[in-house]
Amino acid sequence: MVIPNNITEPSITLKDQYFDLRGLSAYSAMAVSTLRNFISNGNLPAYKVFGKILIKRSEFDAWINTFRINKKQDLSNMVNDILSSIKD
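^ thats the sequence. predicted structure below, dont judge the formating
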């Protein structure tokens, strides 16, 4: 049996893709106009390529994380996760 080479190649991941405004709106549940306002105010990092506005998913995720409400709770959960993984 012969296995084609393209089966063993790494798969393409869309984990860190670029969104246009409509795609980011669907991903984030935020209105396109709201996203435009954040971009024009310089708060949300974006790229303009041939007139099209693109936002990198990882940069959006990092930006939106700054709005997290329960930041103290996250630290506590992180410490608990680390301690439990050490115990195992």
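The chain has one domain: 16-87.
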